[in-house]
Structure formats: structure tokens, C-alpha cells
Amino acid sequence: MHPDDRDTVFFLELADTQFRQMDLSFVIVADPRAPRFDVDRDSAGRDNCFATLGRNIPAEIQAMAAGLFPNQTRRGLRLFADFFPRFERFVDSLGMEMIVGEPLTYDNAIRYEKYGFDYLTGKRLMLQIDREFRPGGTLFRRLDGSTPFRMPGAERTVRGRSWAIHDGIMDEAWDGVSIYKMVGEHAGVDTFPDRDNYGGNEAR
Question: What is the pTM of this model?
Fold first, then answer.
């Protein structure tokens, strides 16, 4: 990597809260050799702030076809499983008992469940999403092929659900989901318990 490169291999943003918690604000572990998809840029090449200022649909279609998740510009290096226990020990060494965060996407929330997180807010939404993606549910019926992100069968995978949610399939925007983990404890939460494919489960 070169200092002038647009992307980083590893990026970590942390902040301590007024309640002596560690806020895991942002983490990226990207493969610099992997193809890049400009899902983070608009048609003029400007930062779209995680698609809040407009989406790059052609790049998103390419990224999805390559097996990436929403807002992911490159595939990961699959190192989060090595990073997180070390991070948790670091938090513990500071005398903090809780890690908090706000998942940027549905797949992030599911991913953090695997590492022992529970929900401060949003658990009811996560359970509702799972219920409505099941046969007969509202989100299941909306997987009608009307866009490349809403294809039948997407309900069966974390990636498929996440892209559909990113595409606005819900009546409400993805927002208001906050998570926490007590250091050294695993909450055992699983809001998508019978998924038959959970590929690419490294945090970005």
C-alpha cells in the first residue's frame, strides 16, 4: 500500500463513552488485491456517505454479483475473527466492561450477533425482519424481481436480505439499531436462526 492510496487495508475507529464503555464505531479489513467496486461514490465520483447521498447502482450490482455486502468496496481478508478477541482483551485491560456499536447494515448486525452482541435497541426490528422474510411475510412477497436486489430466494441468505433492505424493501429505513457486548460474555442472540447460507461473515 502507498500513503496516497484511496483505501486502507485496516481501519479502526474507537471512542470511549461517558459511561466508560468502548464504542466500536467502525472497522474495515479489506483485501487490497481484490477488485474495487465504487459503491461509495456517486456518478460524479463524489463520496456518497454510505449511499445516503445517492447510490451507484451499476457498481452495487457488480459488487453483489461478486459476493460482497452493501457498502463493501472490496472483499475482506477474513481477519475479524482474529482481531476481535484481541480487541476485547484490550477493552478489558482498560477496565471497561461493555462494548457498544451501531451496525451500518443488516448483515453487520447479524455478524456481530455471532461474536456475542445483544441489542440495546432494534431487536424487535431484527425479529420482525426475520418474520417478514419468511413465506407469506410482507418482505417475502416483495422479493418479486422488480430490481436486481429483490430477487426471489434472497430471503434465504444474510447477503440477500441485506441487499434487499439496502434497496429500500422495508417501509422504514434501516436505522436505530444499537448493539452491546459485555466483555467476556456471549449473549447467544440469533435473529436469523435457520439461514441455510451465511457466506462472507467477516466484518468489514
Answer: 0.92
